[in-house]
Amino acid sequence: xxxxILYQDDYLVAVNKPAGxxxxxxxxxxxxxDAVVQxxxxxxxxxxxxxxxxxxGTSGVLVMAFSPEMARNLSAQFSESQTNKTYHCLVRGxxxxxxxxxxPLAKLNEQKGRSRFKIEGTEKEAETKFVCLTRYQAPIPVxxxxxMRLSWLEVTPKQGRKHQIRRHFxxxxxxxxxxxxxxxxxxxxxxKAEWPEHFRLMLHASHLEFTHPVTExxxxxxxxxxxQIIDMLNLLAPHEVPLSASER
Length: 248
Known about the structure:
The chain is of the alpha+beta class. It has five helices and 13 strands.
Protein backbone atom coordinates (compact mmCIF):
# COMPACT_ATOMS: atom_id res chain seq x y z
CA UNK A 1 0.00 0.00 0.00
CA UNK A 2 1.50 3.33 -1.08
CA UNK A 3 1.86 6.22 1.32
CA UNK A 4 0.36 9.65 0.68
CA ILE A 5 3.29 11.96 -0.07
CA LEU A 6 2.76 15.51 1.17
CA TYR A 7 6.08 16.93 0.01
CA GLN A 8 9.21 15.67 -1.73
CA ASP A 9 12.42 17.17 -3.10
CA ASP A 10 16.01 15.99 -3.50
CA TYR A 11 16.66 16.15 0.24
CA LEU A 12 13.56 15.06 2.12
CA VAL A 13 10.11 13.58 1.85
CA ALA A 14 7.02 13.99 4.04
CA VAL A 15 4.08 11.61 4.19
CA ASN A 16 0.71 11.33 5.88
CA LYS A 17 1.45 8.33 8.08
CA PRO A 18 -1.54 6.06 8.61
CA ALA A 19 -2.45 4.87 12.09
CA GLY A 20 -1.16 1.41 12.95
CA UNK A 21 2.05 1.67 10.95
CA UNK A 22 5.47 1.76 12.62
CA UNK A 23 7.95 4.44 11.57
CA UNK A 24 10.66 1.77 11.54
CA UNK A 25 11.16 -1.67 12.98
CA UNK A 26 12.19 -1.80 16.65
CA UNK A 27 13.50 -4.44 19.06
CA UNK A 28 10.02 -4.47 20.64
CA UNK A 29 8.42 -5.35 17.29
CA UNK A 30 11.05 -7.50 15.62
CA UNK A 31 8.43 -9.60 13.89
CA UNK A 32 7.02 -6.58 12.03
CA UNK A 33 8.15 -6.36 8.42
CA ASP A 34 5.95 -3.41 7.44
CA ALA A 35 7.02 0.14 8.39
CA VAL A 36 7.19 3.63 6.88
CA VAL A 37 10.92 3.31 6.19
CA GLN A 38 10.46 0.12 4.15
CA UNK A 39 7.42 1.43 2.26
CA UNK A 40 9.08 4.73 1.37
CA UNK A 41 12.26 3.03 0.26
CA UNK A 42 10.22 0.92 -2.16
CA UNK A 43 8.01 3.83 -3.18
CA UNK A 44 10.75 6.39 -3.89
CA UNK A 45 13.55 4.05 -4.88
CA UNK A 46 15.84 5.72 -2.32
CA UNK A 47 17.08 4.97 1.18
CA UNK A 48 15.26 7.10 3.75
CA UNK A 49 16.30 8.08 7.27
CA UNK A 50 13.92 8.98 10.14
CA UNK A 51 13.95 12.59 11.32
CA UNK A 52 11.37 12.33 14.10
CA UNK A 53 8.79 9.82 15.24
CA UNK A 54 5.07 9.37 15.55
CA UNK A 55 3.61 6.68 17.78
CA UNK A 56 2.34 3.64 15.94
CA GLY A 57 -1.29 4.59 16.61
CA THR A 58 -0.82 8.23 15.59
CA SER A 59 -1.46 9.42 12.04
CA GLY A 60 -0.31 12.57 10.27
CA VAL A 61 2.71 14.52 9.04
CA LEU A 62 5.95 12.54 9.18
CA VAL A 63 9.25 13.72 7.67
CA MET A 64 12.07 11.52 6.38
CA ALA A 65 15.44 12.53 4.91
CA PHE A 66 17.30 11.05 1.96
CA SER A 67 20.70 11.16 3.71
CA PRO A 68 21.99 10.72 7.27
CA GLU A 69 23.40 14.26 7.25
CA MET A 70 20.04 15.77 6.33
CA ALA A 71 18.33 13.63 8.97
CA ARG A 72 20.73 14.89 11.66
CA ASN A 73 20.19 18.51 10.60
CA LEU A 74 16.43 18.20 10.70
CA SER A 75 16.45 16.17 13.93
CA ALA A 76 18.30 19.02 15.63
CA GLN A 77 15.40 21.35 14.88
CA PHE A 78 13.03 18.95 16.63
CA SER A 79 15.26 18.36 19.64
CA GLU A 80 15.85 22.09 20.06
CA SER A 81 12.11 22.92 19.78
CA GLN A 82 12.62 24.94 16.60
CA THR A 83 9.62 23.39 14.86
CA ASN A 84 5.93 24.22 15.21
CA LYS A 85 3.67 21.19 15.57
CA THR A 86 -0.12 21.08 15.67
CA TYR A 87 -2.09 17.97 16.60
CA HIS A 88 -5.78 17.19 16.95
CA CYS A 89 -7.11 14.69 19.46
CA LEU A 90 -10.29 13.43 21.11
CA VAL A 91 -10.20 13.16 24.90
CA ARG A 92 -12.41 12.10 27.77
CA GLY A 93 -14.51 14.73 29.54
CA UNK A 94 -15.27 18.41 28.95
CA UNK A 95 -11.95 20.28 28.71
CA UNK A 96 -11.49 23.95 29.48
CA UNK A 97 -11.86 26.25 26.44
CA UNK A 98 -8.08 26.67 26.38
CA UNK A 99 -5.12 25.99 28.61
CA UNK A 100 -1.47 25.10 29.04
CA UNK A 101 -0.20 21.90 30.61
CA UNK A 102 3.19 22.62 32.16
CA UNK A 103 4.26 19.33 33.66
CA PRO A 104 7.79 17.85 33.52
CA LEU A 105 8.01 14.33 32.15
CA ALA A 106 10.41 11.65 33.35
CA LYS A 107 11.67 8.72 31.35
CA LEU A 108 9.67 5.54 31.85
CA ASN A 109 11.06 2.09 32.42
CA GLU A 110 9.24 0.11 29.73
CA GLN A 111 10.84 -3.30 29.86
CA LYS A 112 8.68 -5.90 28.20
CA GLY A 113 6.60 -7.81 30.72
CA ARG A 114 7.00 -5.23 33.48
CA SER A 115 4.76 -2.40 34.63
CA ARG A 116 5.86 1.07 33.55
CA PHE A 117 7.36 3.30 36.21
CA LYS A 118 9.10 6.68 36.25
CA ILE A 119 12.88 6.81 36.45
CA GLU A 120 13.55 9.34 39.18
CA GLY A 121 15.86 12.20 38.30
CA THR A 122 15.16 12.08 34.56
CA GLU A 123 12.42 14.73 34.52
CA LYS A 124 12.54 17.26 31.68
CA GLU A 125 10.37 20.31 31.13
CA ALA A 126 7.36 19.75 28.91
CA GLU A 127 4.67 22.21 27.91
CA THR A 128 1.55 21.58 25.87
CA LYS A 129 -1.03 24.19 24.88
CA PHE A 130 -4.54 23.31 23.82
CA VAL A 131 -7.77 24.84 22.53
CA CYS A 132 -11.10 23.05 22.84
CA LEU A 133 -12.82 23.10 19.45
CA THR A 134 -15.90 21.01 20.22
CA ARG A 135 -17.52 19.17 23.10
CA TYR A 136 -19.80 16.17 22.82
CA GLN A 137 -22.19 14.36 25.16
CA ALA A 138 -23.06 11.09 23.44
CA PRO A 139 -25.83 8.77 24.72
CA ILE A 140 -23.39 5.90 25.22
CA PRO A 141 -23.35 4.37 28.72
CA VAL A 142 -19.92 4.23 30.27
CA UNK A 143 -19.09 2.90 33.72
CA UNK A 144 -21.83 4.22 36.05
CA UNK A 145 -22.86 7.06 33.72
CA UNK A 146 -25.61 7.02 31.10
CA UNK A 147 -23.75 9.27 28.69
CA MET A 148 -20.18 9.95 27.58
CA ARG A 149 -18.51 13.37 27.58
CA LEU A 150 -15.74 14.03 25.07
CA SER A 151 -13.73 17.01 23.78
CA TRP A 152 -12.10 17.57 20.38
CA LEU A 153 -8.92 19.59 20.81
CA GLU A 154 -6.25 21.41 18.86
CA VAL A 155 -2.93 20.82 20.61
CA THR A 156 0.51 22.42 20.26
CA PRO A 157 3.33 20.75 22.23
CA LYS A 158 6.37 22.94 22.73
CA GLN A 159 8.76 20.01 23.03
CA GLY A 160 8.57 16.50 21.64
CA ARG A 161 8.96 14.30 24.70
CA LYS A 162 8.01 10.67 24.28
CA HIS A 163 4.22 10.35 24.51
CA GLN A 164 4.06 13.99 25.62
CA ILE A 165 0.48 14.68 24.52
CA ARG A 166 -0.81 11.33 25.75
CA ARG A 167 0.88 11.65 29.15
CA HIS A 168 -0.06 15.31 29.60
CA PHE A 169 -3.75 14.70 29.05
CA UNK A 170 -3.66 11.70 31.34
CA UNK A 171 -2.15 14.05 33.96
CA UNK A 172 -5.04 16.46 33.28
CA UNK A 173 -7.48 13.53 33.81
CA UNK A 174 -8.61 13.87 30.18
CA UNK A 175 -6.92 10.84 28.59
CA UNK A 176 -7.04 10.32 24.83
CA UNK A 177 -9.70 8.10 23.32
CA UNK A 178 -8.21 4.84 22.05
CA UNK A 179 -5.01 5.13 24.09
CA UNK A 180 -4.17 1.63 25.33
CA UNK A 181 -1.26 2.83 27.51
CA UNK A 182 -2.59 5.94 29.24
CA UNK A 183 -6.27 5.96 28.33
CA UNK A 184 -9.52 5.20 30.14
CA UNK A 185 -10.43 1.54 29.72
CA UNK A 186 -14.13 2.27 30.31
CA UNK A 187 -14.29 4.86 27.52
CA UNK A 188 -12.25 2.68 25.19
CA UNK A 189 -14.36 -0.41 25.82
CA UNK A 190 -17.64 1.47 25.30
CA UNK A 191 -16.57 3.20 22.08
CA LYS A 192 -14.97 0.08 20.65
CA ALA A 193 -18.23 -1.78 21.23
CA GLU A 194 -20.35 1.05 19.78
CA TRP A 195 -18.25 1.89 16.69
CA PRO A 196 -15.63 -0.85 16.26
CA GLU A 197 -14.76 0.05 12.66
CA HIS A 198 -13.89 3.64 13.63
CA PHE A 199 -12.10 2.95 16.91
CA ARG A 200 -8.39 3.89 17.08
CA LEU A 201 -6.02 6.17 18.96
CA MET A 202 -7.65 9.53 18.28
CA LEU A 203 -4.45 11.52 17.77
CA HIS A 204 -3.42 13.13 14.48
CA ALA A 205 -0.38 15.26 13.59
CA SER A 206 -2.15 17.85 11.46
CA HIS A 207 0.49 20.49 10.73
CA LEU A 208 4.27 20.79 10.91
CA GLU A 209 6.39 23.87 10.27
CA PHE A 210 10.18 23.79 10.04
CA THR A 211 13.08 25.38 8.16
CA HIS A 212 14.39 23.57 5.12
CA PRO A 213 18.08 22.87 5.86
CA VAL A 214 19.21 23.65 2.30
CA THR A 215 16.91 26.38 1.00
CA GLU A 216 16.40 27.91 4.48
CA UNK A 217 12.76 28.48 3.56
CA UNK A 218 9.94 27.82 6.01
CA UNK A 219 7.99 24.72 5.09
CA UNK A 220 4.46 24.26 6.39
CA UNK A 221 3.04 20.80 5.78
CA UNK A 222 -0.50 19.68 6.48
CA UNK A 223 -2.05 16.21 6.57
CA UNK A 224 -5.80 15.63 6.24
CA UNK A 225 -7.57 13.64 8.92
CA UNK A 226 -8.01 9.93 8.34
CA UNK A 227 -11.39 8.53 7.30
CA GLN A 228 -11.66 6.79 10.68
CA ILE A 229 -11.36 10.07 12.59
CA ILE A 230 -13.70 11.92 10.23
CA ASP A 231 -16.30 9.16 10.55
CA MET A 232 -16.01 9.18 14.35
CA LEU A 233 -16.49 12.96 14.48
CA ASN A 234 -19.47 12.72 12.13
CA LEU A 235 -21.07 10.14 14.41
CA LEU A 236 -20.52 12.43 17.39
CA ALA A 237 -21.68 15.60 15.59
CA PRO A 238 -25.39 15.24 16.52
CA HIS A 239 -24.35 15.24 20.19
CA GLU A 240 -22.32 18.44 20.14
CA VAL A 241 -22.55 20.64 23.23
CA PRO A 242 -21.74 24.24 22.21
CA LEU A 243 -19.30 26.22 24.27
CA SER A 244 -20.99 29.06 26.12
CA ALA A 245 -20.60 32.65 24.88
CA SER A 246 -18.25 33.42 27.76
CA GLU A 247 -16.00 30.49 26.86
CA ARG A 248 -15.57 31.33 23.17
